[in-house]
Amino acid sequence: ERTRLLLEVYPELINTLDRLGADPTESEAVFLEAIALARQAGDRRTEALVEAAYGWLKTGQGDWPAVIAHAQRALTLADAECDRPVQLFARFALGRAFVWKGRLHEAVRIFDQAAEIGGGDAGADVEVLGWRPYVECLSLRAVAQTFMGRPRDALEFVNRLPALLNRPGVRSDMSSPASDRVWTHWIVGDANAARRCGSESLQMAERFGDAHNIVYALLTCGVASFLALRWEEGDAFLERARTLMSTSSAGREWAALIDGYQAVCRAGMSDAERSLALAQRCIEQARAGHLPLILGYLGSVRARVLRMVGGRQQQHDLEAQVSETLEVIQRHDIAGCLPFLLLERAGLARLRGDAEGMARDLAEARRLFAEMGVTGWDDYAKSIEN
Length: 386
Prior knowledge:
Layout: H1 2-20, H2 24-41, H3 44-60, H4 64-81, H5 84-100, H6 104-118, H7 133-147, H8 151-165, H9 175-188, H10 191-208, H11 211-227, H12 231-248, H13 255-268, H14 272-288, H15 292-309, H16 312-332, H17 338-351, H18 355-372, H19 378-385
Helix pairs in contact: 1-2, 1-3, 2-3, 3-4, 3-5, 4-5, 5-6, 5-7, 6-7, 7-8, 7-9, 8-9, 9-10, 9-11, 10-11, 11-12, 11-13, 12-13, 13-14, 13-15, 14-15, 15-16, 15-17, 16-17, 17-18
C-alpha cells in the first residue's frame, strides 16, 4: 500500500517542484527516488510518467538535452504500454524541446503523432498533472509552423483555440497555449490580436497562480506591446516578468527573450546603454544554450536595437549580427524569421547609402511576406525605405 501511494505521489511531487522552480539538486534527488521505486515495482506506466514529468521539469532549467533524453524514454515506455495520456504528455515535452533546439520539422512530426493519438477535439479532455497535453501539443505545433514560415497553418489552430479553452469542465491552467498565440500574431503583424491574447493569457495565468506560466504570459504581453510600439508598457510587462523569474526561479528558459524584447523597448525609450547591454546579453544566452531558433529569432531583434540606437560602432556590430543570424536561419530552415532579418539588413544598407542593396532586401522581404500571407509589417518596411 505504501509503494502504491508513493507511486501516485512522486509524479505530482516532481510537477510541483517544477512549478515552484525548485533547486536542480533537490529535483534530481526526487526523480532518482521515484524512478528507482517505479522500476522496482515493475510499474512501467508510472515509470513513463515520472520520466515525462522530469523531462518537462528540465525545460524550466533550460537543459534541453536532458529534456529530450527523458521525454524519449517516456515516449518509448508509454507507447509500449499504449497509455494515451502519458503518450501525449511525453510528446508535449519532447516536441517542445525540439522547438527550442530549432528542430522544427521533427517537432511537427511529434505533434502530428499527438494529434493522431488524441483522436480529435475529445483529446482536449485528457489531463495529466494539471496539463492538457493534447491542446499543448497542437498549440506548440502552431508555434513551430509559424517559425517555419507557415502562419496560415498556424492561424487555423489559433482561431479555434478559444473553443478548446472554453470547453465545459476545463478547470486546469490553459494559459500557456493561450500565450502561444502571440507568436503567430507577431509574425503576422497583428498588434491588436496580440495584445488581446496576451491580456487574456495573463489573466488566466494569474487566476491559477503558476509562476512559470505567469512569467510566460508577461513575456508575451511585452511582445505584444512591442508590436504595437508601446515601449513603456512593454518595458513594464517585461520588468515584471524579470522580477518574478528572479524571486521564484520559475520560467528561466524565457530569460533571453525577456532581455531581447526589453532591449527594443529601452531603445524606444532612448535608454541606449541599457538597451545595448540587454541586446548583447540575449544573444550571449542563446549562444551559450546552443539554441538556434532563439538565436535566429533574437538576431533580428538585436539588429533592430543596433539600428535604433545608431552610431558607427553599432553599424559594425549590426553587420556582424546580420551575418551570424542569416547563417543560423538558413542552416536550420527557420524560414519565418528570414524576412525580418532582411528588413534589418535593408536598414543597414540604407545607413551606408547603398540604395540598391536596400531595395533588393526590401523586395525580397516583401516577396517572402506575400508568400506567407503576411501584410502587417508593411508600415515597418516603409519606415526603413523612407
